[in-house]
Amino acid sequence: MNPAMLVATCGRVLRQLRSDPRSIALILVVPALLLAVVYFLYENETLPPGAPRTFDRVGLMMLAIFPFVVMFLVTSITMLRERTSGTLERLLTTPIHKADLLFGYALAFSLMAALQACVATAIAYWTFDLAIEGSPGLVVMVAVVNAVLGVALGLLCSAFARTEFQAVQFMPVVVVPQILLCGLFVARDDMNEILEAVSGVLPLTYSVDALFEIAGNSEPTAQLWSDIAVIGAVIVAVLLLASLTLRRRTS
């Protein structure tokens, strides 16, 4: 890869995002608003003295799920626009390497994902008083990694869509099953053998596991780093697979 090309691609994508207020709002504002909805859902719940709030568990998980979903949507639609407008085809006729182009996109959206994670986590902790054992920094780290996972999957799925509507249609195939089987609604140990096995190969499962580790431990654990490593490996593998979808001709 050429670092100069990668940085140039990243800068171009960030400039495009800066001129698109709707995408910026979707990235930075929507996750915080959805988190507020979750908080107010449980605001009036009745709990025994000393019992943890439901929001402390559900809200923590949403800090990973919302960025994953939002970045998947934004990335897949933005990349699809690049393909259908001919921008991607023109770029691929230049000396730029596919890896520089793809990782430049990933870097740009990852920077936005980091900002998104900081905003959402700050609101969760200092507005809604999220109470867990782990530090906000660890939560931000997992949220960012999860958002980057959404970026990688969005880049990959954009290759198989011809319209923005088709890009959104990948959500029930790629995103929803991971949310259902990640262990948020039903503990993995309580699933039947088939669903538990499927859950074990879905990357979002490891994000939820990592957040459970943060929720129950004041210091990082070996399991937390193991979960992060698995997600990181999946991100790299998906980006490499996505690079194979970059063609010099628009179909």
Q: How many distinct beta strands?
A: 0
| Main sheet summary | none
Instruction: Label the overall shape.
Output: globular
Q: Order of SSEs, N→C? A: HHHHHHHHHHHH
Poorly predicted spans = none
Count of individual helical segments: 12
Overall number of structural domains: 1
The span between the termini is: 26 Å
What class do helices, strands and sheet pairing give?
Answer: mainly alpha
Strand percent estimate: under 5%
Organism: Arthrobacter subterraneus
Domain ABC transmembrane type-2: 22-249
Subcellular location: Cell membrane
Pfam families: ABC2_membrane
Question: What is shown here, in short?
Answer:
This protein has 251 residues and is mostly helical. It is built from 12 helices and no strands. The chain has one domain.
Break the fold down into its secondary structure elements and pairings.
Elements: H1 3-18, H2 21-28, H3 30-41, H4 54-84, H5 87-91, H6 98-126, H7 136-157, H8 164-169, H9 171-181, H10 193-199, H11 203-216, H12 222-243
